[in-house]
Amino acid sequence: MKIGILGSGVVGQVIGQKVAELGHDVMIGTRDPANLGEPRGWAPSLGAWLADTNGRGRVGTFAQAAAYGELLVNATNGLASLDALRQAGAQPLGNKVMLDLANELDVSRGMPPRSLATDDRSLAEEIQAAFPDVRVVKSLNTMNANVMVDPRALAGGDHTVFLSGNDAEAKAQVAELLRAFGWTDIFDLGDLGSARGVEMLLPLWLRVWGGLGNVPFNFKIVR
Amino acid sequence: MKIGILGSGVVGQVIGQKVAELGHDVMIGTRDPANLGEPRGWAPSLGAWLADTNGRGRVGTFAQAAAYGELLVNATNGLASLDALRQAGAQPLGNKVMLDLANELDVSRGMPPRSLATDDRSLAEEIQAAFPDVRVVKSLNTMNANVMVDPRALAGGDHTVFLSGNDAEAKAQVAELLRAFGWTDIFDLGDLGSARGVEMLLPLWLRVWGGLGNVPFNFKIVR
């Protein structure tokens, strides 16, 4: 499958490398695709990323990655996601399945960052409203990038990933990718309104992360 | 110990019965203490509750329960908590430790109820601001009442309860009560600002509850 990833930071790079390992072809879309040499925030340069993808990786603009992917991943900073998607354009986005794993964390008022999600709105729903044909599926936003792509490395994979979306077939496609990553406890929360719940988990996530001291962790629904 | 519980619904009654079983004396405070005969929402009448407490239970006004308790529990509906605490009055509340387990869930705009918690405010912080001498500890608001008081009945107790508060001694007192309930994984999130995180968990909780079909469950931090 061809996968288009919007966003060149840690999450985009880690997801991109994983899907390349799984045998998919992948393009990372970014604002500045010609810049292959500089680090991307906390992540290595895209040149280093390309070298790690065994020829399966490409770098392009947001529009090129959107056009390239049969399945899309929104791995941009949540505060900039709508802007990046508008740069990509409604035409290449089409009615594709988009795994949205972004969070809106505002660092402008100090630390810990403030989540903008409330029980009246979520980023996933705003993306869906702005691009009604895209089949948005929220998932993977409740853990760090290494846990996303290698859940078995933490407690043998005995923890939970959530799924929200309005299109059952799109959720099934994302669930298949999650199973390929190693996920076994994939919890379907329902329609995209339930993305509010997982986006609102970030303030708790950040406190747990601070309390544990930057070690891998995840939530599990014990039942 | 004498425990004062504000709120006569399911949560107040279940907590009250549990602390009576543990050998504490307990008073439930309510708006209408003379009404012992009628059910309390989904809970039995206070007359039935009294009969289950082996002589350790009492019923009084909010002010009487606040004056009675050496440790206080806010088990009122979160939308009415500040009003109930003002009825109790700052003088009987004093500088007591108050375990706040309330959630603000607005049902006026349909189901599922909307949580009012955001990353800019929490009920626990508003209670603390209104009664600066009270030592507010947020805990137990992320599960149903039966799980609160009998964690071992679910997966042998292998799941997590959170603790938020500004006073270390108050948190230690609440943690001691939690251990008496059977809790072993008691996760201290830090100051009372972290109550935003646990209050913001409710929208996800409600979706999981709906998905599982009203069976006992809880969150676990897998690390």
What can you see in these coordinates?
The structure is a homodimer of 223-residue chains. With 223 residues, chain A is α/β, with parallel strands linked by helices. Helix content of chain A is 36%, strand content 22%. Chain A has ten helices and eleven strands. Chain A has an eight-stranded mixed sheet, sandwiched between helices. Chain A has a two-stranded antiparallel ribbon with strand order 6-7. The model of chain A has no long low-confidence stretch (mean pLDDT 97). β11 of chain A pairs antiparallel with β11 of chain B, so a sheet runs across the interface.
Q: Alpha-carbon distance between the termini of chain A?
A: 35 Å
Counting DSSP H or I runs of 4 or more residues, the number of helices of chain A is: 10
Question: Could you state the oligomeric state of the chains shown?
Answer: homodimer
Can you list the strand order of the major beta sheet of chain A? 3-2-1-4-5-8-9-10
Estimate the mean pLDDT confidence of chain A. Answer: 97
**Low-pLDDT segments of chain A:** none
Number of strands of chain A: 11
Provide the gyration radius of chain A in Å: 16 Å
The largest sheet of chain A is: 8 strands, mixed
Structural class of chain A: alpha/beta
Strand content of chain A: 15-25%
- Secondary-structure element pattern of chain A, one letter each: EHEHEHEHHEEEHEHEHEHHE
